[in-house]
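Input chain follows. Return structure tokens only.
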Amino acid sequence: MDLGKFQLDVADLADAFETIDDPRSEMNRRHPLISVLTIAVMAVLSGAGGPTAIADWANMKSEWLTKLLTLPHGIPQKDVFRRVLMSINPAVFQACFAQWVHQLTAAHKSADENKPVLSIDGKTLRRSHDRAKGLGALHSVSVWAGDYGLTLAQVACAEKSNEITAIPEVMKLVDIKGAIVTIDAMGTQKAIAKQIVDGQGDYVLALKGNQEKLHQAVAKYVDARLENDFQGIGACRHETHETGHGRQEHRLYVQFPVPEELAGQDDGRGLKTIGVAMLTTVRNGTETSDVRYFISSLAMGVKQFARAVRGHWSIENGCHWILDMVYREDESRIRQERLREIFAWMNRFTLSLLKQHPAKKSIAMKRRSCAWNDEFLLQVLTGKGT
């Protein structure tokens, strides 16, 4: 394989790491920091899930890696990878990867005329706890751009109840201007809605029992107008029918301006419309239904509202499910606080890279292909295959 065509792009990735201060003492810098981090990313792309697996992969690829990277003292051992990854500031590490992803996807984003949908949701690494040391399982809140298959930012928090404080922090790490931010009911807070509007973005926020007064008012208003099919309130509707995987799905989206009796609920958060999403599913002759309510700063445009609602679920289907089923993230036993956060971010970053590659393969098969084929790995890493 001709490595020359990939050398420059690997150097570009190395440049993205330059803002990271080397946490090691001078005497422990036998292996260049940039090379250690690049190997770690490549190994995770190939299936590694911890420092030992990274070192094993690197040793098996030693001849190839020494031609590609600066490694004057050969391949680092597992303790080097562990110490480096445990010592790096997760926020700075994340920012470097975000810069790299931005470079790879700038052209795709500029060509998209739709407002990007940024979905914010939390995920728990269930086996990352350590009861003996009083360490709870890692819970992190991520921003997912489903249109591009990218995780844009991540903030770790102590537990799910702290999502309310983590959501404002993770939003500070991304540019929400011109985007539609979607959050489940946990994030339906006045301050969060105002932060989105102040950032020149729009929101679609779910309503549930934690917003009892507003939720009940919206549900009562909608139920009272179901009988006459939402006539006379300026409502717009959009329907979809889908068949697949042994089921039939009918989705009805209804959007209408905020009625006068609910206008007082605004409280400075730019509330403009109310939305309802009704899902009817038939599987094996059994019908189930679900109704969900939303508040939004979007102007009337029911197809845009429907796109935002469907887009929110892509963080579960296109990110969290893959992290559990392909990366086996929920089974991770990494219990050092900073190290598990670093690996959670590397999993999301490498998943983003895999999604950018145009090969018509599943994420699982792309990851195997990275392990089996060095050129494919470099295509994914550098964006040469996109």
